[in-house]
Specification:
transmembrane helix; mainly alpha; transmembrane; 5 helices; membrane; VanZ family protein
Length: 133
């Protein structure tokens, strides 16, 4: 298993991350998911944002580049897998390669937070060290 950061409550943060993944799978596989916008192709922005949030959260929860790489690969596989599942297992959804591309771009953007001071935000919040800066 990938290394989790040295939090006070590591299972809480890890559990919330996995809950986010479960919610994403549920929403992606439900027959008529809620639409946040009536604009054409707005679902691409929804895909991008969802995967950006999951990838950025992985940077927060997991410790170091190796763990982040595994999380990124897992999220990419999840995005592609969901698209295949939508095409194969549902009658109300269809596979869309552009959704998978939006997922991948979201993962890349979320993982890019590892190169910023934000990569330690959750750790600093939990430790109460944000106010000391």
């Amino acid at each position: 298993m990938a290394a989790v950061r040295a939090f006070r409550w590591p299972w809480l943060w890890l559990g919330l991350w996995w809950l986010g993944i479960a919610v994403l799978i549920y929403v992606c596989m439900m027959p008529h998911p809620p639409q946040l916008s009536d604009l054409p192709d707005s679902d691409k922005a929804e895909h991008f944002i969802a995967y950006l949030l999951l990838a950025a959260a992985a940077v927060q929860v997991y410790a170091g580049p190796r763990a982040w790489a595994w999380a990124a690969l897992g999220l990419l596989a999840l995005g592609v897998g969901i698209e295949f599942a939508q095409g194969a297992w549902t009658t109300t959804r269809s596979a869309d390669p552009l959704d998978a591309l939006a997922d991948a771009l979201g993962v890349a953007a979320g993982m890019a937070t590892a190169a910023t001071p934000w990569r330690d935000l959750l750790w600093r919040l939990e430790r109460g060290s944000l106010r000391r800066r």
